[in-house]
């Protein structure tokens, strides 16, 4: 397909704005010998990306060799990625810089994510015979101005595979010019459940000590919310006098000050984990100020309030609680976990609250085992659905990688046919629009 005049003009206009030159990727100097996937990230790192990379390196695909992944980031971004991922600075979006980058790294596949299609990259990858896929795709919200006719259609039709995040996105992309035969729907990949470790013998001993008392957990409790949580606990105690609060301070150094608030201002009997004290029957609040035991507290507490979510932002991911069967209560301030909270809320898997009185009422209501169990069940289903989508997506990406020559000596004709097509591998069975 010849590129339309609008795309040529658009490439010329964007090239003039791109900064010349580029930075050599940090880290390893040589291209890996095996399959290489390039993932250029225009913005931040999607929370699901580390899991997707892990699934890719385990996915049964067209190659036995484990693919390596090269991630490029803009500016001085400091990524949080698995240690075996190659990380580089993104090349400027000009044709010569992209060409040099592709010649330097020779990726077998380019995988785009986000809501922007980099025209220079797609143009140069197509010229070099490198397949470009777009995952978690939705209609672009920016770029590709209307004064350059045909740009978006040309870019969409240059992609070997478009994995739409849902049916509505797939329909919208078809209307914009994407080829129906290259659109798949795998579901949006999401951050997966975080199963924190705990010692089962310790859980059994603690559970026997607690004697089936109702328990709720304040996880990652910041100083600004200490009084709010204590007020909520006091209110909930009126409904359930045996209720135990397990408070995990965000800063363990706050343990003594928090204990003083509980004992002096509230008149409660308090025990502290770091002092080897136990939550006996008369204890109303237990301060868990030791490191590395969050898995134990989530497992013991049927209800978890995500600390910070009423003020400056949740300190911990709600998927920690979801993975260990604790019902999630949270305020409106989600911090870095916004997308995860929204997804769980849409699945009716959390109890949102807006104030300390609402927190107290929520705890009192969720003491009923069936109510807490319904929330935790929905949270588990919503969080594991992301893992299934990630599995499907990893299989689609892996299928586009070249097969080792030794495994395909008798299939050279098929390999030549695949190489001549829009991508280097056939997509999996397509979901009907």
UniProtKB/TrEMBL annotation:
Role: Involved in lipopolysaccharide (LPS) biosynthesis. Catalyzes the transfer of 3-deoxy-D-manno-octulosonate (Kdo) residue(s) from CMP-Kdo to lipid IV(A), the tetraacyldisaccharide-1,4'-bisphosphate precursor of lipid A.
Keywords noted in UniProt: Cell membrane, Lipopolysaccharide biosynthesis, Membrane, Transferase
Top EC class of this enzyme: transferase
GO cellular component, one term: plasma membrane
Family: Belongs to the glycosyltransferase group 1 family.
Ranges where the 3-deoxy-D-manno-octulosonic-acid transferase N-terminal domain occurs: 84-187
Swiss-Prot/TrEMBL catalytic activity: lipid IVA (E. coli) + CMP-3-deoxy-beta-D-manno-octulosonate = alpha-Kdo-(2->6)-lipid IVA (E. coli) + CMP + H(+)
Full protein name: 3-deoxy-D-manno-octulosonic acid transferase
Pathway entry: Bacterial outer membrane biogenesis; LPS core biosynthesis
Species the sequence originates in: Allgaiera indica
Positions of the UniProt region annotated as Disordered: 405-433
One GO BP annotation of this record: lipopolysaccharide core region biosynthetic process
GO molecular function, one term: Kdo transferase activity
InterPro entries found in the cross-reference section: Glycos_transf_N, Glycos_transf_N_sf, Kdotransferase
EC number: 2.4.99.12
Subcellular location: Cell membrane
Pfam families: Glycos_transf_N
Highest taxon of source: Bacteria
Coiled coil: none
């Amino acid at each position: 397909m010849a590129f339309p005049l609008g795309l040529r003009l658009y490439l010329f206009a964007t090239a003039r704005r791109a900064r010349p030159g580029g930075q050599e990727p940090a880290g390893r100097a040589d291209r890996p010998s095996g399959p290489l996937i390039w993932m250029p990230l225009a913005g931040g790192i999607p929370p699901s990306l580390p899991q997707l990379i892990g699934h890719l390196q385990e996915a049964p695909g067209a190659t036995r060799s484990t693919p390596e992944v090269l991630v490029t980031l803009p500016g001085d971004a400091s990524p949080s990625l698995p240690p075996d991922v190659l990380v580089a600075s993104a090349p400027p979006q000009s044709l010569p810089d992209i060409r040099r980058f592709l010649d330097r790294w020779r990726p077998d596949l380019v995988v785009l994510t986000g809501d922007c299609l980099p025209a220079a990259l797609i143009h140069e990858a197509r010229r070099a015979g490198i397949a470009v896929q777009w995952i978690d795709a939705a209609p672009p919200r920016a770029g590709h101005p209307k004064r350059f006719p045909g740009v978006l259609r040309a870019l969409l039709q240059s992609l070997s595979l478009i994995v739409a995040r849902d049916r509505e996105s797939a329909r919208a992309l078809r209307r914009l010019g994407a080829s129906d035969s290259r659109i798949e729907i795998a579901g949006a990949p999401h951050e997966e459940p975080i199963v924190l470790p705990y010692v089962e013998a310790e859980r059994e001993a603690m559970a026997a000590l607690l004697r089936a008392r109702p328990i709720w957990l304040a996880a990652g409790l910041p100083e600004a919310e200490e009084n709010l949580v204590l007020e909520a606990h006091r209110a909930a105690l009126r409904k359930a006098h045996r209720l135990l609060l397990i408070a995990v301070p965000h800063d363990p150094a706050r343990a003594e000050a928090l204990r003083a608030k509980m004992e002096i201002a509230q008149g409660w009997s308090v025990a502290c984990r770091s002092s080897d004290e136990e939550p006996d029957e008369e204890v109303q609040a237990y301060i868990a100020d030791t490191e590395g035991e969050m898995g134990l507290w989530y497992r013991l507490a049927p209800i978890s309030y995500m600390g910070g979510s009423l003020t400056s932002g949740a300190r911990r991911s709600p998927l920690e609680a979801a993975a260990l069967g604790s019902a999630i209560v949270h305020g409106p301030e989600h911090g870095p976990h916004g997308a995860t909270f929204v997804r769980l809320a849409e699945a009716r898997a959390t109890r949102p609250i807006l104030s300390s009185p609402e927190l107290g009422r929520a705890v009192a209501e969720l003491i009923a085992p069936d109510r807490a169990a319904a929330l935790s069940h929905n949270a588990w289903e919503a969080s594991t659905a992301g893992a299934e989508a990630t599995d499907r997506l990893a299989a689609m990406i892996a299928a586009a990688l070249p097969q080792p020559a030794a495994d395909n000596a008798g299939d050279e004709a098929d390999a030549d046919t695949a190489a001549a097509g829009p991508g280097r591998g056939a997509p999996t069975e397509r979901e009907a629009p």
